[in-house]
Structure formats: structure tokens, C-alpha cells
Amino acid sequence: MNTILARLNALFAFSLSVTAAVAFACFLTTNFLDYTQKVDIDVNKVVIKNMEEFYVGDRHDLGHIIFTLKANFTPVFNWNCKELFLYLMAEYETPQNKLNQVVLWDHIINRGENPVVNIRKRSNKYYFFDDGAFLRGNKLQISLHWNIIPNAGYLWRVPGGGSIALDLPESYGTSRI
Amino acid sequence: MDIFSDLRRLNKRQVYFQVLNFAMIISSALMIWKGLMVTTGSESPIVVVLSGSMEPAFYRGDLLFLTNYRADPVRAGEIVVFKIEGREIPIVHRVIKLHEKADGKVKFLTKGDNNEVDDRGLYKPGQLWVERDHVVGRARGFVPYVGIVTILMNDYPKLKYAVLGLLGLFVLIHRE
After folding, report:
1. Is residue B1's pLDDT more than 60?
2. Which residues of chain B lie closer than 8 angstroms to A152, CB-CB?
3. What topology does the record note for this protein and the membrane (chain B) (predicted)?
4. B108, B97 contact by CB (below 8 A)
């Protein structure tokens, strides 16, 4: 330890090991916590249309859903949760596909921002095209999930409580959306 | 400069010892990497995030740990790393739409969190969905910043050669 180089080397190696230890501690202390939260989902309006899907070229069923969402994520944020990625997912079955999962809406909450979600009468953010024309009369399971993005550690995907079942209308709608 | 005095004292046996030492280090690193590939089922178990399309979750230079277990089905909301045919660079995006048939065949649509539109514009012309075979792995763990070294070495190839050359020289010459 009698040259600048040797001292710099030792300092660098030590800070590297300390940073690794802190990252590991972040992971260990928060990995096994319960991140589930109660969620309130309500659907205000559903309309199904049939139109040509962009890029694809075929005529597919297009669903339009207006929903209300209430949840409080304050206990989910901790020193290791830097972002919460919320996504509202609709799950259903058709004769063509056994499982269909479509993300209708997503939202990012960073640590420090308002953790209370109070969305009223919001339209789905992404086009809800079916892979076919099987939405009429079908049944959707709508649930909110969230992805925990840590400072360092496992990327948990948590299914939220409070999923609801939604019966889709039997015929195409004509109301303006 | 005591590295030169070390050099003068080296004889044949010590040179062989140093070379074997070097080979041991290289082969253990290779064994660890291949072992990781087997236990995670992914051909590339650790990837560096290369673009800003997943901000603010992942920034350029972050490290992702992937698994690719066949028995674990892909579900919407997961972050998948996939390759487009004809392109070397894997893309790290989120699954926003998924259709699975009764026989297990699955196709899905992806989108980067920071992008306005889905990835159909990124896929090969004529390709509408990503399939299971395109997936390199699914992101399970995350460590920030560590991959910056890889990005720097890719952007400045002279730096890569300089670092590797210096490291090689150091290991071969230094006695310990």
C-alpha cells in the first residue's frame, strides 16, 4: 500500500464489493414481502365493433371499454421499489384461441409520485382487437396486475385482488366512442 | 518499476505456470457462463439494456437476468427479450397482447414502455407476432448501471482492445 496505484486499486475493489453487498441487501430485505393490494374495478360501458385491423388486413372484432379504477399503492412502495408498472388486463377464451390476454390500459407510478389511483370513466388505452371475430357474447375476466421494478432484485409480477367478470354484448354496437 | 525485475527472474517453469493460471481463469469464466445457460434455459442469461425504450424502468446500461423455462408459459405483462429474424440485437420489451391455442402454440405482441406504439413496425416485414422460438428469455432479475462497461466497450472499440491488452499483460507479468 505504498503507491498511488496500489491504493487506488484497493479503493476501487473495496467500493465495488460494498456496492455489490448493498445491492444484494436491497434484494434480500424486500424480496419476500407481500405486494398484493385490494383493487376496485368497475366497467361503465362496453361497445363492440367490427373493422379491419391495421397492419393485419383482416376484419376483426374491436372492443371498447370504459372503466373506473380505485386502488391505493402506498404500502407497496419501499426503499427497493423504484417503479410500479400497472396494467389492466382482459382475459377471455374463444373457439379459435384457448387463452387470450389483452392489456387495455397501463400506468407508471414512480417512487415519490402519488400512489393513490383514482381513475374515473377512462377509455382503454390500447386497441382491443380480437384475433378473429369472437367478442360478441363472450365473457371477459378483467383484472389489474402490477410489475414491481426494484432498485436491485427480482422483478415481481403481482396479480391484484378485485378482478371482475364482464359479459360482452351479443351484437355490434353503433354508439359513438 | 518492479514488474521488470519480476520479468528478469522468470524462468520457463514460471512462464508455463502463468499461462496455465491464465487458462484456468478463462475456462472457469466459460464454465460459469455455460452453466448459467443450462440452469436458466436461456441462450443469453444476462443481457445489457441497449436502448431507452423501457424507461423509466430500465435505462441503457442496466443488467437483466433472464430465464427461459419451457414449462413456464409466457403471459401478458411479462418483459421478454426476443430476437427478430435477420437481426443480431435482442429487444427488451413488454408483452401487451397474447393469443394461445389449445395445443400450446402462442403468439404475442410487444411494446416498449417508453414507446408510443406497439412493435409491429420493428418486426420483420410481414411478421405480425412474436412466437416462443423468437424469445431469448424473460426478465426476472435486475441490477442497475453494471452493464455500462459493455456499452462503453461497444461504442469505443479502441477502449475494448486497450483494456483487454492491459489485463492480459498484467496477468502474464505479475507474479501473484
Report:
1. no
2. 142-144
3. Single-pass type II membrane protein
4. yes
ipTM of the complex: 0.87
Catalytic residue among B44, B99, B118, B119: B119
CA distances from B10 to A96, B1, B23, B168 (A): 73, 16, 18, 17
pLDDT of residue A30: 87
How much is the pTM?
Answer: 0.84
Give the Cα separation of B173 and B2 in Å (integer).
Answer: 10
Its sign, for the CA torsion A3, A6, A8, A11, is negative
DSSP chain A: --SHHHHHHHHHHHHHHHHHHHHHHHHHHHTTS-----EEEEEEEEEEEEEEPTTT-SEEEEEEEEEEEEEE-GGG--TTEEEEEEEEEEEE--SS-SEEEEEEEEEEEEBTB--EEEEEEEEPSS-EE-SSS--TT-EEEEEEEEEEEESSEE--EEEPS--EEEEPPSS------
